[in-house]
Amino acid sequence: MSALLIIDVQNDFMKGGSLEVSDANEILQPINSLRDKLKFDLVVLSQDYHPSNHISFASNHTGEKLFSTITLENGTEQVMWPDHCVQESHGCEFHKDLKILSSDEIVRKGMEVNVDSYSAFMGNDKKTKTRMETLLKEKNIKSVYVCGVAADYCVFFTAMDSKNAGFDTYFMKDLTKAVNPKELESIYQQLSDIHVKVINSCDISL
Ligand code: VGL
Ligand code: ZN
Known about the structure:
Layout: E1 2-7, H1 28-37, E2 42-48, E3 69-71, E4 77-79, E5 105-109, H2 132-138, E6 143-149, H3 151-164, E7 168-177, H4 184-193, E8 197-199
Parallel strand pairs: 1-2, 1-6, 2-5, 6-7, 7-8
Antiparallel strand pairs: 3-4
Bound molecules: pyrazine-2-carboxylic acid and zinc ion.
Zinc ion binds next to loops.
């Protein structure tokens, strides 16, 4: 059984959004086409879903510059992001051109004020779990194909955690865009090191 994980294809990460990822809109149609071409047993959309007082927003820390990194009390590093994907805002909604079916599952993350969550499996504290792993195991999923945004944050950490949870994991290079494209080579290397398969979507056969 195979699952497609579509990570954070939400207005705030797309063109005109508060945390716009360059060229992110280019992956919308290719993701839709992949769903038409291949029948995944399960499609899960992750949704970054922050309260407005979230710890990852620079606006909630006095004197911190946007995109700087601070060390939190629990010792984890935290990037100071612009306000994004605030619960119930337009920015947190999925892009209107993304194909969504009623059979798709939605997994929300980043809801706790004091914990950020890049991975769709768990918080950056490695403690707070989402329902992703339970959901995939319930549905008997063995192979996980990951796409969406951002390649160097949420897609990367989701792929790492998917592999660590025991799934055969595929990172689809052509169906993701990065906040820092210069980081991509290092991202691919770290994924390959733990045997996540870094592929293009045209090479998949289910
Ligand atoms: C993301 C930064 C902050 C992502 C989410 O979806 O990659 N990046 N929150
Ligand atoms: Zn976020």
